[in-house]
Amino acid sequence: MSRQEATGHRPAVSGTGTAVRTGLILVCVIALVCGAVAAAMLWNAGAGTAREVAAHRHQVQATTTGRAEDPPLASRQGGGPPSVAPAVWQYPDDVGRSGEVEVPRGTPQGRSVTVWVDDRGRPARPPDSTADLALTALAGGTAAAGAVAASGAGVLALVRRRSEGHRLAAWEREWEQVEPLWSGRLRRGTNPGSGDA
Q: DSSP letters of 116-149?
């Protein structure tokens, strides 16, 4: 005969399981909401910055004055064109400029290429694309949701562990009362002839 049979009841596992499931659902909903809010905030901030940058970026046609060369390894940026070439262009209106610009690999001398420049005519990075903004917002929202979900799951685990400890301690106390009656052994602190067994 088990402790459960001897005490006449089973531990309240189903109630604890329901509470844990409810807690997990609540944590997931809160995490999704936090992730969506973070993504929206990042999108709005990024879109505002992109609009501001775009107002000061201009595409112009440049003509290469030399062959394209691979830049030193230390100065390469991921995702950008892998080569640079000397070029000339005009910006603003009829003001001649020259310098190195990023070009596709293998661009020959004398080729016309499109470059981005700032208000002073210096080569500049293009404004962020919608895809870049969406990726940043998605990554930030996912990170926020993950952080909230992990924190919430950790809190739930601590609460469950503590309540499980309390439940098991109560069960042990009950077992100490029932076990001597069930097994026919004497309780601690009783005499054999006292009739307490």
A: EE-TTS-B-PPPPPHHHHHHHHHHHHHHHHHHHH
CA distance 194 to 177: 17
The three-point CA angle 42-38-147 to 5° equals: 130
User: Tokens 């603003």 map to which residue?
Assistant: 92
Joined tokens for residue 50: 């992109």
Q: How far apart are CA 26 and CA 32, in angstroms?
A: 10
Strand pairing report for 58-64 and 96-103: unpaired
**Distance, CA of 69 to CA of 51 (rounded, Å):** 32
Nearest partner of 18 among 170, 189, 172, 160, judged by Cα: 160
pLDDT tens for 140-186 read: 999 999 999 999 989 888 888 888 888 888 888 888 888 877 777 76
- Sign of the CA dihedral 9, 11, 13, 18? positive
The tens digit of pLDDT for each residue in 96-136 reads 999 888 888 888 999 999 999 999 989 998 888 899 999 99
Say what the pTM is. Answer: 0.59
Whole-angstrom distance, CA of residue 136 vs CA of residue 52: 17
